[in-house]
Amino acid sequence: MTDYAGLVRFLIEPFLESTDNLSIDCETSSNAAKVWIRVAFEGEDKGRVFGRGGRNIQAIRTVLAAAAACSGHSAHLDIYGSQPSNNSFDEVAQSAEPPRRSREQQREPIAKPTLKLRSRDSERDI
Fold it and tell me: What's the CA gap between 121 and 23, in Å, rounded?
C-alpha cells in the first residue's frame, strides 16, 4: 500500500517553520477504495502551506490524487489548524458595521436620456 502519510509529510514540510507541530493521520475505508488524510499544524504556517490563491495546497492535492489513482484509490486531504482561531467568520460578520455611503452614493441616480425612434414610414416621407 502507498505511504500517503509519508508523501504528504514530504510535500508539506518545506513550507513549515517547525516540523515538530505537524500531525498527519491516514484512514482507509473498509473496502480500501478511499483514503482520508488529515493534516494539522500551527496556524502561522497555514498561509505558506496554502500559498497565494491556494496554489500550493492545490498542487499537493493534485500530486496526492495522482499517487492514489496509480494505486487504485481516491484520496481526500483535510487540513486542520492545531490552534483554533479566536474569531469565527460568523462573529466577525456580525460585529462588522455596514459600510457608510458617501454623499455622492446617497443621492438619487440620474435618469438616463430616452431615445425617440422614428418609424420607417416617416423616413420615406423625407
Answer: 81
Can you read off the three cell numbers belonging to residue 91?
A: 462573529
Q: 20 pLDDT exceeds 90?
A: no
**Nearest one of 62, 57, 47 to 17, comparing CA atoms:** 47
Nearest to 2 by CA among 76, 78, 64: 64
Beta pairing class for 34-41 and 23-28: antiparallel
Confidence check: pLDDT of 114 > 90: no
Residue 33: φ, ψ to 5°: -95, -25
Question: Is 0.85 topped by the overall pTM?
Answer: no
Q: Burial of 4 by CB count in 10 Å (0-12 exposed, 13-18 middle, 19+ buried)?
A: buried
Per residue, the 3-state secondary structure of the chain, as one string, reads: CCCHHHHHHHHHHHHCCCHHHCEEEEEECCCCCEEEEEEEECHHHHHHHHCHHHHHHHHHHHHHHHHHHHCCCEEEEEEEECCCCCCCHHHHHHHCCCCCCCHHHHCCCCCCCCCCCCCHHHHHCC
